[in-house]
Design a protein that fits this description.
With 676 residues, this protein is mainly α. The chain is built from 31 helices and no strands.
């Protein structure tokens, strides 16, 4: 985008960098980090960058035993974590790290590194939990050493989790540990399960994190440095900025695209919201609505194929399918989600009679097309993953190289302004690579720690047999109603509440891991297929970020919009209504997830009917079509929309008739008595 185009954009008061940083520190724990300056900053940055290189090498070339790879991975995570996150947010004195943090870092990392370096000996010694029990083994000193080593490692990891992820997931872990000991499990078996075995901190979530997620996070860091976020915002402005209420539609499109890459609902809300929210308010949207639009769209970026944040890799592992298959099945639900938000902002703009941004003030599409090469890494990644020509790790590595390549024109264009353009360009390229590796390593910390805690949850459930008890409990409650369809609805509703409550303040990845271990088996036992069950818990884990009372993404949006946080959260929930409806639909009929499809025509029918349905629901919630809609008609419109969203010819016909009649009636009234 040229300087002329930039100057042509409408002048809006965007938040300063300091204000945005303050919002991030308040609502996003990942941003409440230590302040390093000078040489310490360079040293910490090099450690992060080397960790990223280690992750790439480990996923592509390393042939070590899985336990060695995972223990070394977590040991490095603990080192970087304590170097990055202070005990409290206000502990931000530059170049300061208290002695107790150093002790925790050394003890925690030392526990995992000891395990890594002595694994072959431990593998022969600790063949079962009984070998660690001082009352069973002859070597009491060794048994207690192994128990203490495991306890120290888990405690240091849990403390890091408190700092960078938050207390909610630790509360879940604490309750499950109390239940584990109360169920009669001894200390040796619990420590063996959670630290040394593959059912605790080194369970499936961390295995997937180390093998797939880390390298894709690093790819995302490189992709952001190509300037693709700015390209997405400019593209959205060019496409929708001039339409009625254009800035809100720009927020929906750009946040969907940027959120897909960033994988953080709060981070994306602040990043794109610093631009879009002031623009929406200047156009005429209320602050509560503007903040809600940005929060809802940014949160939905995590369900947007093909990237879908980190959880998509875990879904593929839990559902025993491919990453490409997960992305394919997520297309229609994501389309409905963002269509619902887009329609809601359009109807709100019509209700308020809001205008768009004049064409002459928007980026020109011809100039944007010159930067279309920025999409090359993403396109190649999707092509390689979907065709299965290369492994996920190899595909991400190739995409990283392409991300560096597409950033070169911009880097050297800037360098031409100075003497020695080639040298400056080479130096800037090297700097970009190091900074991207550093950012990728830092971003891995929270995801890895959350995955390790989710592994502890799964380990406690496994060792106590809690999953079967939860299944029986939900089945018993839901079976109080003898009607099968209503009984299933009760079970789904209870599962939804569980996902939202446990997901409040918890990263999507960790939340999904917990739900995949606890709630998904319940739904599968009730007769829902594996794929719909996992998508169900995944969706409701996502919307916890915008569902009051702990709606972090909505609260971040309200901080930028200077609006009421609770009203912003309520508005965001209304905007994201599709995310609360669609999971129930594919639970009853998985055809929406392209499961058990009979013909291509069925796909077309589902797409069209579902889009019409979400239009009806959005209009009912907004209360405006061509004129204000009376309450009884809003209720009928919502029912008609729901009928259209439920796959089936009979429901489609009923819903279509209801929508058509109300639409025609509203249009006729508008012609007779136009609303001023």
């Amino acid at each position: 985008m040229s300087e002329k185009d930039k100057n042509a954009l409408p002048e809006v008061e965007t938040g300063s960098a300091a204000e945005m940083e303050e919002v991030m520190r308040k609502y996003d724990r990942e941003s409440a980090t230590r302040i390093w300056e000078g040489t310490p900053k360079a040293v910490v940055g090099v450690i992060m960058a080397l960790f990223s290189l280690y992750c790439i090498w480990m996923t592509l070339r390393c042939t070590w035993d899985m336990h060695i790879r995972l223990s070394s991975f977590l040991g490095l995570i603990i080192v970087m974590g304590y170097l990055t996150y202070p005990a409290r947010k206000n502990h931000v004195k530059p170049n300061s790290m208290p002695w107790y943090d150093l002790v925790l870092m050394v003890l925690g990392a030392g526990s995992f590194f000891y395990y890594c370096l002595n694994y072959r000996t431990l593998a022969k010694t600790l063949t079962s939990a009984a070998k660690m029990d001082p009352s069973v083994t002859g070597s009491v000193a060794n048994a207690w050493f192994y128990i203490v080593l495991g306890i120290v490692g888990v405690i240091c990891l849990a403390e890091l989790c408190r700092r960078c992820v938050g207390l909610p997931i630790l509360c879940v872990v604490g309750v499950l540990l109390v239940y584990t000991f109360a169920s009669g499990q001894n200390l040796a078996r619990v420590v063996y399960t959670l630290f040394y075995g593959t059912s605790g901190v080194m369970a499936t979530p961390v295995q997937v994190c180390a093998k797939f997620i880390a390298v894709f996070i690093i790819f995302g860091a490189f992709l952001e440095r190509t300037g693709i976020s700015g390209f997405f915002i400019d593209l959205a402005n060019s496409l929708a900025g001039s339409t009625s209420g254009g800035p809100a539609k720009v927020a929906v499109i750009s946040s969907a695209l940027c959120g897909m890459v960033s994988g953080s609902s709060v981070g994306n809300t602040v990043t794109t919201g610093s631009v879009t929210i002031p623009m929406m308010k200047k156009t005429g949207y209320q602050g509560e609505f503007a903040g809600a639009v940005e929060a809802a769209a940014s949160t939905g970026g995590q369900i947007m194929p093909p990237i879908m944040g980190a959880a998509a890799f875990l879904m593929a592992e839990y559902m025993d399918t491919t990453y490409a298959d997960v992305a394919l099945k997520a297309i229609l639900p994501a389309l409905l989600y963002f269509t619902g938000i887009f329609l809601a902002v359009h109807l709100e703009a019509r209700r308020l009679n809001l205008k768009g941004i004049p064409r002459e003030q928007l980026p020109r599409m011809s100039r944007l097309l010159r930067s279309i090469y920025l999409l090359l890494p993403l396109v190649v990644l999707v092509w390689m993953v979907s065709t299965g020509k290369r492994s996920l790790q190899y595909s991400a590595s190739i995409a990283i190289v392409l991300a560096v390549a597409v950033s070169l024109p911009h880097i050297f264009a800037a360098a031409r302004q100075e003497k020695g353009a080639l040298a400056h360009g080479a130096a800037d390229t090297a700097s970009m690579i190091v900074k991207a590796l550093e950012a990728g390593g830092r971003s891995c910390i929270t995801v890895a720690v959350a995955c390790s805690m989710a592994g502890i949850v799964a380990g406690c459930i496994t060792v106590t047999g809690l999953a079967s008890k939860l299944i029986n409990g939900v089945i018993n409650i839901s079976s109080l109603v003898p009607i099968p369809s209503i009984s299933l609805f009760i079970a789904l509703f209870l599962t939804m509440l569980c996902c939202i409550v446990l997901g409040m303040g918890v990263p999507t990845t960790a939340n999904y891991c917990i739900m995949a271990s606890t709630c998904a088996p319940i739904l599968i036992q009730l007769g829902i297929g594996k794929i719909p069950a996992h998508f169900f818990v995944f969706y409701f884990g996502i919307v916890a970020d915008i569902t009051p009372p702990v709606a972090l993404a909505a609260y971040a949006g309200s901080a930028i919009a200077k609006s009421d946080p609770m009203k912003t959260g309520v508005n965001a929930t209304k905007l994201a209504i599709a995310a609360f409806i669609v999971p129930y639909i594919f639970a009853y009929n998985p055809a929406m997830l392209l499961v058990n499809m009979e013909s291509p025509f069925q796909v077309v029918q589902i797409v069209i009917s579902a889009l019409l349905g979400i239009f009806g629901v959005a209009a009912a919630l907004n209360g405006f079509l061509f004129r204000p809609i009376p309450g009884i008609l809003r209720f009928a419109l919502a029912l008609g929309g729901l009928c259209m969203m439920i796959p089936g010819n009979a429901t489609d016909l009923v819903g279509l008739a209801a929508l058509a009649c109300i639409l025609l009636y509203q249009k006729t009234l508008a012609k007779r008595a136009p609303t001023v």
